[in-house]
Write a structure and sequence with these properties.
The protein is α/β, with parallel strands linked by helices. The protein is built from 16 helices and twelve strands. A nine-stranded mixed β-sheet has the order 1-2-6-5-4-3-7-8-9, sandwiched between helices. Strand 3, helix 6 and strand 4 form a beta-alpha-beta unit. The longest helix is centred in the N-terminal third of the chain and has 16 residues. It is globular, with a radius of gyration of 21 Å. The two termini are about 40 Å apart.
């Protein structure tokens, strides 16, 4: 698949519109056959779902972002196009468009993610440098998040062999700013910088977990070098489990809080990693068959120490609609799809599969999908892995 310039602009408009995230984007495309038709349908969907106003990205706004991206040397690659990474395409929340600066060739090679503490120990940094360099020499591309500590050392160690940095903000908003020279070196040495966020977007706390799902999604496996029990690196590990990827953990001293998370991972069944063979012996058969490029598991495995952190995260799909913008009665207009009242009563805060909704409601799959889209665009519905949905409390 190759998008035309006009189609690419429509894709950008749709994914930048309010309450449209990766899962919603795919549902809209499937329902309406294309981004252009989906854009036309958004206001009516929002109104039927109980939303008075919805921000739909204009053509002028999308063109402005396209122009800003071009000035940076950034191009937008769409899911399904040849340069879109097949590993990333396989995950449940794959970004419809990724903004890429640098070489797209590295995105087609087997990738391994290296993640860990920002305040890493000297031994952790030394191990990261050694393992990253060995992985690069073995033909792997090392992926990380351009953060301080383990991420930075992993990128520096693989400049010559290929590395990919995934940003939590826009391509022009580098965090931390001290790594801007490193970012330039990655590009100059044939690596790539990837982001799903708009040009000009300043990263916020909730954007780092969004980024982490891409770090793991690009990779066949994730190596966690150091991680405290409430570390964002454990979130990357959990995404990897959801995505059917391998998790490797480097053991550490039980006296070092930075090793508590990694030691817990090993106790929970992650692959122990003390040398390169521990990684390559597991990944080589998977890469040869592509057997781990699976859509996300219905129920992610639990990792010790991550439950509270996980529950606090505002994870993808999309930012929530602001409060106070719904119709006064919080109900459905009369012209809403047939069967909505019965269907909404079946929904609650606990996820339920769409297949179950179809069976229990007696409605057609198309009618159920349309109603769910109306609720979702109105900001009242949340999508989960395993084709499940739930109502957002208070909406």
């Amino acid at each position: 698949m190759h998008l035309t310039d006009e189609q690419r602009l429509d894709w950008l408009r749709l994914i930048r519109s309010e309450n449209v995230g990766p899962r919603t984007f795919r549902a809209l495309i499937n329902q309406f056959g294309g981004a252009s038709a989906a854009l036309e349908a958004l206001p009516d969907l929002a109104r039927k779902g109980g939303r008075l106003l919805l921000k739909v990205t204009s053509r002028a706004e999308a063109e402005k972002e396209m122009a800003a991206a071009a000035r940076l040397g950034v191009r937008f690659v769409a899911m399904g196009e040849p340069d879109y990474p097949k590993t990333l395409k396989a995950i449940d929340t794959a970004p419809p468009l990724i903004a890429v600066r640098g070489s797209t060739e590295v995105l087609s090679r087997p990738c391994v993610a290296m993640v860990g503490s920002r305040n890493a120990s000297a031994s952790g940094l030394t191990f990261t440098e050694r393992l990253s360099r060995q992985l690069g020499e073995a033909g792997y591309v090392v992926v990380s998040g351009l953060a301080r500590g383990i991420d930075t050392r992993a990128h520096r160690a693989t400049l010559a062999t290929g590395t990919v940095a995934v940003l939590a903000g826009g391509q022009d908003k580098i965090y931390p700013s001290e790594n801007e020279p490193l970012l330039r070196s990655i590009i100059e040495n044939g690596g790539a910088i990837v982001s799903e966020m708009p040009i000009g977007w300043e990263s916020r706390g909730r954007d780092f977990p969004r980024r982490n799902r891409i770090v793991s999604g690009l990779s066949y496996g994730v190596v966690v070098v150091e991680a405290a029990r409430r570390s964002g690196s454990l979130i990357t590990a959990r995404f990897a489990l959801e995505q059917g990827r391998e998790v490797f953990a480097v053991p550490g001293s039980p006296l070092d809080p930075r090793a508590e998370g990694t030691n817990d991972l090993i106790r929970d069944g992650a692959n122990l990693c003390a040398e390169i063979d521990h990684v390559t012996s597991v990944l080589e058969p998977l890469i040869a068959t592509g057997s781990r490029l699976d859509v996300s598991a219905e129920e992610p495995q639990r990792l010790v120490g991550t439950e509270e952190l996980w529950d606090e995260l505002d994870l993808p799909d999309v930012p929530r609609a602001p409060k106070g913008t719904f119709m006064p009665d919080s109900g459905f207009p009369e012209e809403a799809g047939e069967g909505n009242a019965d269907l909404i009563q079946m929904l609650g805060p606990s996820p339920i599969s769409i297949d179950d909704l179809v069976r229990q409601s007696g409605l057609s799959i198309r009618s159920v999908q349309m109603t769910l889209l109306e609720l979702e665009i109105a900001g009242r519905l949340e999508r989960h892995g395993g084709n499940a949905v739930s109502l957002i409390a208070g909406r």
